[in-house]
Design a protein that fits this description.
Number of domains: 1
Helix content: over 70%
Distance between the termini: 19 Å
Number of helices: 22
Length: 433
């Protein structure tokens, strides 16, 4: 039986679905950095309001581990397609409702409470998105090009960030009163269109050949999580530690934007453009890095991206402290669009290749979402520890570098998997060979 399936269709569906779903997820981060402190926490000091708004961004990551357990079980027990449809509907609905929320001035403390509830639903939904899309694409892909095809999931994620940031560009130039009253709501309302388009695309997907083989031979695990933690718990821990590299993304996307606009008093529009151009660069470089890892291995590409991200984060945050837009654009595009993208290109295949088919979605979902949950609070933790002053960039950079170091150790001590046949992934070394 072939394991190649229909890789192009699976990759395109993963790209479009991830782009649409992560558009929803990242417009929240942009709104948290720019307006939520004033809309939902106006009674606080400006710095405290910003910190609380960033904390609600992190709250979404708390629901990710819970969602990973639930959706991981569903995906390994009943199929990848069911997870991909469920996550998209849930994300689109919860995001649309954020745009309908009353402000603190209208209903008091109920407003931030409802905001947190909907953010938790977003986190629950997104916990199964990447693991489901990666599993679907990996199991359809040719064995020699797994990194290339699975990289379309993260490529779509970057595209989602582009759309999320770009849609805020015309919103950000609105007068303050209009921005805080109705302007910020428009990107959230648009998510209902996102959900409908994504649902149509994903309902046309076919289940993967490897999962269908398990169904046909009655080898589907009844309790995938029990099998996962009995036989593969070390790889779950490894993926969790490696997934801390996502702190680079949350610091870049949320903290750096807040630091530039709220602390350094830089203009919102050029800072949003930094995010757009950096993500455009990432969309171009991710498949190139993935192709390279199909040739020389996952680990060297992943580690180089992690080391480069740790170093260049210092340069990017420092450039914001100078207020020099030319430096900000240069460091932003190189750091996030060219170097960090090496890690984004490799981890969809590298993490998935650690597990066999029967627990792949659970292993990826649980491992990554625990790591992402920690990374999601990186902006709030960095702000709390380093403060909000002009010199806070150095402390935030150090914290980010520590997260990168944890990732480097986890990846360096893992097994190289790029030459293992797809049906042998996750098995003992002697069997895989």
């Amino acid at each position: 039986m072939t394991t190649e399936g229909k890789p192009r269709k699976a990759a395109v569906a993963a790209w479009i679905g991830s782009a649409l779903e992560y558009y929803d997820f990242f417009i929240y981060g942009t709104a948290a950095a720019l307006v939520f402190g004033k809309v939902f926490f106006p009674s606080s000091e400006p710095a405290t309001g910003t910190l609380l708004a960033l904390a609600t961004f992190g709250v979404g990551y708390l629901a990710r581990p819970v969602g990973a357990f639930v959706l991981g079980h569903v995906g390994d027990r009943f199929g990848r397609k069911r997870v991909l449809v469920t996550t998209l509907v849930m994300m689109g609905t919860s995001t649309f409702l954020v745009g309908c929320l009353p402000s603190y001035d209208q209903v008091g403390v109920l407003a931030p409470v409802l905001l947190v509830v909907l953010r938790l639903l977003q986190g629950f939904s997104v916990s199964g998105e990447q693991a489901g899309a990666n599993s679907m694409t990996l199991e359809h892909a040719p064995a020699t090009r797994r990194a290339y095809y699975t990289s379309f999931t993260l490529n779509g994620t970057q595209a989602g960030q582009i759309i999320a940031t770009a849609i805020f560009l015309p919103i950000a130039v609105l007068p303050e009163e209009q921005l805080l009253s109705w302007g910020w709501r428009v990107p959230f309302w648009f998510s209902i269109v996102v959900a409908v388009v994504g649902l149509i695309i994903r309902r046309s997907l076919e289940e993967t050949p490897l999962f269908e083989q398990e169904v046909a031979t009655s080898t589907v695990a009844k309790l995938p999580i029990a099998v996962l933690f009995s036989d593969h718990w070390r790889d779950v821990v490894r993926v969790t530690a490696a997934a801390l590299i996502a702190s680079v993304s949350t610091i870049f996307t949320v903290h750096a934007l807040s630091y530039a606009v709220n602390t350094m008093d830089l203009d919102r529009t050029p800072m949003l453009w930094v995010g757009v151009l950096a993500n455009v660069a990432a969309v171009i470089t991710i498949p190139l890095w993935a192709n390279l890892s199909d040739r020389i291995g996952r680990k060297p590409v992943f580690i180089c991206g992690s080391v480069g991200s740790a170093v260049l984060t210092f340069g990017y945050l420092w450039s914001i402290s100078t207020g020099t837009y030319a430096l900000i654009f240069l460091f932003g595009i190189v750091t996030f669009g060219m170097v960090y993208s090496a890690t984004a290109a490799v981890w969809p295949s590298f993490y998935g290749e650690m597990f066999p088919t029967r627990v792949r979605l659970s292993g990826m979902a649980i491992g990554t979402q625990i790591g992402f949950a920690i990374s999601g609070f990186a902006p709030a933790v960095a702000t709390a520890i380093a403060g909000t002053g002009q010199g806070s960039w150095l402390g935030v950079s150090v914290i980010t570098a520590i997260f990168c170091l944890m990732n480097i150790v986890a990846v360096a001590t893992g097994k190289e998997t790029y030459r293992v046949r797809t049906e042998n992934l996750g098995r003992p070394v002697e069997v895989a060979a």
